[in-house]
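Could someone model NAP with this protein?
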Amino acid sequence: MRKSRTVVVVGASRGLGLALAEEYCARNWHVIATSRGRSAGLDQLRERYPTSLEIETVDIADGASIRALARRLETVSLDALFVNAGICKANTLTPLEVDDKDFLDMMSTNALGPMRIVEALYDRVPERGVIAVMSSELGSIAHCTGFWELYSSSKAALNMLMKAFSARHADASRSLLLIAPGWVRTEMGGEDAALETGESIPLVVDVVEQSAGVPGLRFVNRHGEILPW
Ligand SMILES: NC(=O)c1ccc[n+]([C@@H]2O[C@H](COP(=O)([O-])OP(=O)(O)OC[C@H]3O[C@@H](n4cnc5c(N)ncnc54)[C@H](OP(=O)(O)O)[C@@H]3O)[C@@H](O)[C@H]2O)c1
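Reply:
Sure, complex below.
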């Protein structure tokens, strides 16, 4: 029987991250799902998948917390690393209106933090492995309409940092993905969102699975279609 593959899902306490952890468990992966604190959703998932699911802790806005996670995972080999965590604050405000802290929190959690996780866990992912980071259609500068401009700028910054990372690792053969899941009903996406998690996340995981062994960086949607930077 084939040895099960291992994925770390960062930011899996609820919403899309919890749905990712559930989807990987259902596909027989060994799943290391992280949260910042206790997550009822992850506790329930562990009752359903006691041998497949491990729960870890990390706050991606805290460098020491990221380094500690990397030390705890020092001996683990990851077929996939999926950095999902993100926040949206003051989405309708303009640069003049926003509280400095809200903007900086978004930059820290949506751009710097994910890339610190990628850097810290990069060596845990073998050459045919996949490193995926949850971006957004709103991170595309080419498609910008001004909607949620501050949040969008943090995802554009994430995309730029991932592009710079891939340039620094041009000789490596890992697959690097920035994935846009679509507009999905979660705490962040809100009630009016177009999709249920079940209409997005299985497609997102398909894209990650199909990317194993495909080197280089792509910015894609849940269907695997290339998005403009
Ligand atoms: N929903 C959408 O329509 C949509 C569309 C495009 C992109 N996205 C992106 O998809 C990802 C997930 O969004 P979502 O809709 O599921 O949002 P959500 O329901 O608000 O969940 C956000 C997740 O990120 C975690 N998180 C936030 N700050 C963190 C930190 N400092 N360290 C570790 N974990 C942290 C949260 O953990 P806690 O429970 O501890 O707060 C939670 O698990 C985000 O990157 C978001 O930008 C969402």
